[in-house]
Predict the 3D structure of the following.
Amino acid sequence: MKPLRFQGKRIFKMDIEQRLKESSGEEIKYLFKGFLQILEDLKSEHDSLMNRLRDNFPDLEKTLITSDSFDENKMSQLRKRVLDLGNDAVRKNNSHVERIYFKFKQL
C-alpha cells in the first residue's frame, strides 16, 4: 500500500481507522477508570462516616449495620455497571468509526 501524507506524517490508509479506534478507545477507558476512582473515593468516605457513627453512637450499631446500603455487594454492582457502560461505549465508538468513509487526496 502506498503511504499517504497527512499533516506532514506518512501514514497508511488502513492505519487511520485503527488509530482512531485505539486513541478514542484509550480516552474512553481513561474516563471510566476515573469513574471507578470516584466510586472508590465515595466508598471510602462512606465507610469513614459509618465508622465515626459507630464510634460515637455505639447503641445504634445494629441500626447502622441494617441501614448501610453502600456495602461491598453494592460497590461490586456499581463497579460492574461502570465497566459495562465503558465497554459498551468503546464498542459503539468502534462501530461509528467503521462507518466513516476516509478519502485522502494523494500529494
